[in-house]
Design brief:
six-stranded mixed beta barrel, 35 strands, 20% strand
């Protein structure tokens, strides 16, 4: 093969990628046998073949083409996206493996029920008809709702092929007035970014057009080369074409860390301290973007000392309309109070301002007080990052040109995740990094057409962490707190949620596998009187169910999605295999079986039109018919008139915070009015920064995290035989050789990770990139794929940040030892 060269005779990165891509195709022919089952031997070149629009649902929703021959998807490939200003024609191994996914042996083929007289988890099943399955499910729903109330039936509507739109599932749980089981995952990233910046950036691909323009780009707690592989090339383009400096922050040197100009390894869970310490340096060196903060942020707003709220026009004048209630600032141009919308030069750094009997400080002056609590010496001590590296980090953030920070889910998986996300947002605001307000194109997933303004609703939202108590006692109590608002102090009492639970219907995902403290999850799930699971493939959650339903893949259903800056209407490429049905059809069947026929009249194509046909789409000249005909439309990010925060400005100060998911938990607003750092709730094995080590670390001294992997998304794709050929076919744990030697562990040997919650047996893999004192275990392997235990047997359901109930997967201490070959008893 001739190398691809440019005119100077040197091999470019792009040329190298083309060369290696071609080589990969040749090498991949050795695995072509894996697709043999997809095409009958009788197929020939004359077989009917069609090309369908589809997409991969693994991470970024990449638009694809499916080649269909003899009723089977035999090939998937990246699809051209007309009108896209950047090259988005990409597909990774997960997308390429879809043909195998559709026919893999682990697919659930028929409705099944647990064999009469057998225990959950015993593995004894009987095939039943769809009629029997739906009749049984509906009878159970009616029985429990009649005796224990409508909320005694709980639904989990994550969708069997997320991120497909879950319109009809959401319709069902509202109209039937179920309780809703929430994921309780990733809320810190969601809430932290929404409250501070008004939305996600670089999540889902809609902002990737900005990345190639960067001169400095920070990837913080994220490994997109592995988790979102098609995002990497935008970063690589910036490095190659724009001399972009890449900074990566992570405890362990992951894949993208190997590409960094500056890799910052820090003590797990100290990200907020590092961010606030960097902010202090930038302020002290006079490198803030004051003009940006004056115009785009809450920095100049006056904050009342009396109650911690912003001073508004309505505090000073009577009869002010809500849409005219401007924020008070101190205008340096007039040396008097003014309003944010009209002041010529609002002051940022000023305290003790008297306005109409109210003593006020600018929000930015309060932030300065907060970041002054994080001198570089203290930050270096708690993070273990050398002072020189911290200063280098600050210098790179202040390089000329565009800069921004790509935050990942890795930093929200600790007990105080919201504060971490908010602290990183401080840097973005101070340096003027946040782009103009924009959002990904929203589809309507509510379950109701925009004209259906009156409809029943779910009873309440419940976190999985509440299930054990609710199932035991019918109650869950949140502890009260002492809340502070400026000079005001309030005692908030305990809050008790009362909801007997009897039945759970789980559409998709795999909570028994993915929720922390798996043994507690199983204990709770087994207490449900009746458990239904719908999924594409057999999984841990199906194992302990009473009825299991076979769900169809995207290629067997089609429908719209908005991801990656595109709107896609996927074709129904093939008929559902076996007896699989779509989420939409399952919702229709259950809804009609409950006598709710009036709400479930429309079949799939008609129902999906409500997903696309919104007021926004009409204003943009888009409708479902046009999208269906086009297959793919590039819409990019939609400009917004203001940031989608409480004030319309970027906010590092929260005057009246509230949770995105409110279960009734009390909170102390002062604890999150400004970001701060405190150690992880469990994973703190050191004494530093005035905080003593967790005594538990004497018994369990190692911090374990579960990093992302290239060939799976959590447990999804984890049983795909083609992908299993491409990576090691069993769970592994990565360990630094220093920690391994101290414990007599050999590379490639089996080891046992354990703590008081459970254990997991995995194969040890030595890696100098793993920080000493840390372990990195695979996530997403089914329990049946482990020799014993499971990675989430180790993690905790404890939640300490009630402002943002989110599972702290990485906030976990363990010990590790050579495995003695004994398979310990574990909940199955």
């Amino acid at each position: 093969m001739e190398p691809v060269q440019n005119t100077t005779g040197t091999l470019t990165r792009r040329g190298f990628l083309k060369t290696t891509a071609a080589a990969a195709l040749v090498a991949g022919s050795a695995s072509a046998a894996g697709f043999a089952a997809l095409t009958p031997k009788t197929a020939s070149a004359q077989s009917d073949e069609k090309i369908c629009t589809t997409y991969c649902n693994a991470c970024m929703g990449c638009p694809l083409e499916a080649v269909v021959r003899d009723g089977n998807v035999v090939l998937t490939r990246a699809k051209e996206i007309e009108g896209a200003p950047i090259d988005q024609k990409r597909m990774c191994a997960r997308g390429a493996s879809i043909p195998t996914l559709i026919v893999q042996e682990k697919r659930i083929q028929y409705p099944m029920k647990r064999a009469e007289g057998t225990e959950r988890g015993a593995g004894q099943w009987e095939r039943i008809s769809w009629d029997e399955a739906i009749d049984t499910i509906c009878a159970k729903i009616k029985e429990y709702q009649a005796e224990f109330g409508s909320g005694s039936v709980c639904s989990f509507t994550y969708g069997t092929t997320e991120p497909r739109n879950m319109y009809n599932l959401n319709r069902l749980e509202n109209v039937a007035q179920f309780s809703h089981q929430n994921r309780t995952t990733d809320f810190a990233l969601t809430q932290g970014t929404m409250y501070t910046a008004g939305g996600f950036y670089y999540q889902g691909g809609a902002d990737m057009d900005l990345v190639s323009q960067m001169s400095t780009f920070v990837v913080w707690g994220h490994n997109p080369i592995v988790s979102w592989p098609n995002a990497w090339h935008y970063i690589a383009d910036a490095i190659e074409n724009n001399d972009c400096k890449l900074i990566v922050v992570d405890p362990n040197k992951n894949t993208i860390g190997q590409k960094a100009d500056l890799f910052v390894s820090l003590q797990p869970g100290t990200d907020a301290a590092l961010a606030l310490g960097l902010a202090k340096i930038i302020e002290e060196e006079g490198k803030t973007d004051d003009a940006f903060m004056q115009q785009k942020s809450c920095a100049p707003f006056l904050v009342k000392e009396s109650d911690g709220r912003f001073l508004r026009k309505s505090d000073l004048e009577e009869g002010v309309a809500a849409d005219a209630d401007d924020f008070a600032v101190w205008d340096e141009a007039t040396n008097a109070m003014g309003y944010a919308s009209t002041a010529q030069n609002p002051v940022l750094r000023k305290k003790g301002i008297e306005v109409a009997g109210q003593r006020c400080n600018t929000a930015y002056s309060l932030l300065i007080d907060r970041i002054n609590e994080y001198p570089i010496e203290m930050v270096s001590e708690v993070t273990t990052v050398p002072e020189e590296a911290i200063r280098t980090f600050a210098d790179l953030l202040c390089r000329p040109g565009m800069a921004d920070i790509f935050q990942g889910y890795g930093i929200d998986h600790y007990g105080h995740g919201f504060n971490t996300i908010a602290a990183v947002s401080v840097l973005r605001i101070m340096r003027g990094m946040v782009p103009e307000p924009r959002m990904s194109y929203p589809l309507n997933s509510s379950g109701f057409d925009e004209t259906e303004t009156e409809h029943p609703a779910i009873v309440q939202s419940l976190g999985t962490f509440m299930f054990n108590d609710l199932l035991d006692t019918g109650k869950y109590t949140f502890p009260g707190v002492t809340a502070h608002m400026g000079e005001q102090v309030m005692e908030l009492p305990d809050v008790t949620v009362e909801q007997p639970l009897k039945m759970l219907i789980s559409f998709g995902a795999n909570i028994v596998n993915s929720a922390p403290d798996r043994n507690k999850t199983i204990e709770a799930y087994k207490k449900f009187d009746f458990l239904v699971t719908a999924n594409i493939e057999w999984c841990d959650t199906a194992d302990i169910s009473d009825i299991v339903l076979p769900a169809a893949t995207i290629q067997e259903v089609g429908g719209p999605i908005g991801m990656n800056g595109c709107l896609v209407w996927a074709d129904k490429a093939v008929e559902p295999k076996f007896e699989a049905k779509s989420d939409y059809d399952m919702a229709n069947l259950i809804g009609r079986g409950l006598g709710l026929d009036e709400w479930f009249q429309e079949e799939f194509d008609e129902g999906m039109k409500h997903v696309v046909n919104t007021a926004m789409s009409a204003a943009m000249g888009i409708d479902a018919d046009k999208l269906k005909e086009a297959g793919v439309m590039y819409v990019g990010a939609v400009p917004m008139p203001a940031y989608m925060t409480m004030t319309g400005k970027l906010q590092f100060y929260q005057e009246n915070p509230g949770p995105i998911e409110n279960y009734g938990q009390p909170m102390d607003p002062a604890s999150i009015a400004l970001p701060h750092w405190e150690p992880p709730m469990e994973a703190w094995p050191v004494t530093a920064g005035g905080f003593d080590a967790n005594p538990l670390a004497e018994k369990y001294p190692l911090i374990v995290t579960a990093g992302t992997r290239r060939f799976r998304v959590h447990s999804y794709y984890g049983q795909n035989p083609l992908l299993r050929e491409m990576e090691i076919n069993e769970p592994c744990v990565r360990i630094n050789p220093v920690d391994a030697e101290a414990r007599g562990i050999e590379d490639g040997s089996y080891v046992r990770l354990f703590n008081d919650r459970g254990h997991a047996v995995a194969k040890a893999t030595f890696s100098a990139g793993i920080r000493p004192g840390c372990l990195d275990i695979d996530r997403g392997w089914q329990r049946s794929q482990y020799i014993s235990g499971c990675n989430n047997d180790l993690t905790s359901k404890q939640i300490v940040d009630w402002t943002c109930p989110t599972y702290a997967y990485h906030d976990c201490l363990v010990e590790i030892e050579p495995w003695d070959g004994v398979v310990a008893e574990s909940q199955e």
